[in-house]
Amino acid sequence: MGIDINNQGLYLNDAIKKILEEIDTLIVNNAILHKEEINLDEALGKVSMEEILSEEDIPGYRSSVMDGYALGESTIGNKWKVVGESFPGKPFYDLLKKGEAVTISTGSFVPDNCFSVIPQEQVSLEFLNGNEYIVKKETSSNNSWIREINDQVFKGEILIKKGVKITPGILSKLASCGIKTIKVSKFSKLGLLITGDELIKSGSARKKGEIWESNSILIKSIAKNLGFEINEIHIEKDNYQSIKNSLRNISEVNDVVISVGGISVGKKDFLKDIINEIGEIKFWKLFLKPGKPFAFGLINKKIPYFGLPGNPVSAAITFIQLVRPALQKLEGITNIEFPLRFKVKLNSDLKRRKGRPELLRGKLIVNEEGELIADISEEQSSSKISSISNSDLLIEIPSEIDFCQKGNLLWAQLLKNNFL
Q1: How far apart, in Å, are the Cα atoms of 175 and each of 106, 107, 118, 164?
Q2: Coil, strand or helix at 119
Q3: Residues 6+ apart with CB under 8 A from 76
Q4: Strand ranges in 14-122 using DSSP code E only, listed in sequence order
Q5: 3-state class of 287 per DSSP?
Q6: Residue 257's closest CA among 267, 268, 266, 248?
Q7: Fewer CB atoms near the end CB (10 Å): N or C, the chain?
Q8: Which of the four pLDDT bands, split at 50, 70 and 90, describes residue 397?
């Protein structure tokens, strides 16, 4: 496991790997993935717990690509008599005789013995003895303009795999294949604990040394934007027994426990000891800035526990980097989604002290040449949420770097709108 030589904690990628391995073990040993069958209109954002195959070809009939005419066998002079219409919901089922055609619109049923549709702009019209005829123009193409019966989906095609998050496009495809219900995983219930003697309710009268508590709404909002719901929130003073009681209560009715604050090395940072009393800390501390005071463990051997730092930026970043992939795994997602990474050019020189790898906050700029530019935010304090709420990027700074010249390329992670 990647621990730095000064034993300052796990590197980020190793921490993610450790968490996902532990959750895999939980899933196997405790069968903690549960499923339910629901209607499609309730399934958006949930995770499929089954593989669904199409039972038939879709649309199941040949259809026209263009507005025009479906043609029977041709006659001398490339002239056809129009004998009917084929429109959506009103197909023309009869077989056409030699020299006959039907008016047809896009997507409509093509009669069984028609092997070509001609667009309306490639014909001229003639009227003779009260009948309408079409005559093919010399400039017309030889394209058949017919979609086959399995143009959308073929029989036996996989419509959705197990472990896939359901999107609007997937829902549309399932509905178009006649699927009414789907088996999905039940969402994990998340319990949140906030600790700190200095915390008071937002909007209440504030004394010196007190701060309005905001981490609960921060984490709840990030979770919601990512598709997860916080089931309950406890806010406790820095009291060992009160915190212990809250953790026990939360773990009895939730599948995951998250705490913010109280996980560092201060006199009143009790959470590490409490978790080891009612469960087990699997690892403590990250070799990362911001986010060093982070813990992962299990309560009662089966409830995943995430201890986030108390500083808002550190809490937000560790939730996105570490808690989010774990929650996806607990949903049954097969391919975990991580923030999109790409290289950006620095907009200015970067100076810093060597040490921990760092995730700097910045804005994404696209210049006139189409280059991706990172404008590093001047404010990088982990206590100021504005340093991340006004940012598009987390710029990855390796531990060995103390200077980067303007124009140099670095990896960055995109903070999509749904993160914050």
Answers
A1: 21, 18, 31, 17
A2: strand
A3: none
A4: 35-39, 52-53, 63-64, 68-71, 79-86, 100-104, 116-119
A5: coil
A6: 248
A7: N
A8: very high
- Counting other chains too, the contacts that 155-158 makes at CB distance below 8 Å and 24 or more residues apart are 155/54, 155/55, 155/56, 155/57, 156/53, 156/54, 157/53, 157/54, 158/51, 158/52, 158/53
Pairing of strands 295-299, 303-308: antiparallel
pLDDT digits (tens, 9 = 90+) for 75-90: 777 899 999 999 999 9
**Distance of alpha carbon 70 from alpha carbon 102, whole angstroms:** 5
Residue 2 binned pLDDT confidence (cut-offs 50, 70, 90): low
Rg (CA), the chain: 31
Report the alpha-carbon distance of residue 258 to residue 194 in Å, rounded. Answer: 9
> For residues 117 and 107, is the Cβ–Cβ distance under 8 A?
no
Amino acid (1-letter code) at residue 215: N
pLDDT tens, 89-98? 999 999 999 9
Q: What is the pLDDT of residues 231-247, one digit of tens each?
A: 999 999 999 999 999 99
Instruction: Take residue 218 and report the two structure tokens written for it.
Output: 């921060």
The burial class, CB within 10 Å (0-12 / 13-18 / 19+), for 56 is middle
- 343, two tokens: 């290289």
Q: What's the half-sphere exposure (Cβ side, CA atoms, 13 Å) at 96?
A: 28
| Tens-digit pLDDT profile for residues 186-204 | 988 999 999 999 988 888 8
Over residues 33-58, the mean pLDDT reads 95
Helix residue spans in 55-158 (DSSP H): none
Q: What is the DSSP letter of 232?
A: E
pTM: 0.86
Cβ proximity of 420 and 393 under 8 Å: no
Give the three-state DSSP class for 396. strand
For 40-61, what is the mean pLDDT? 96
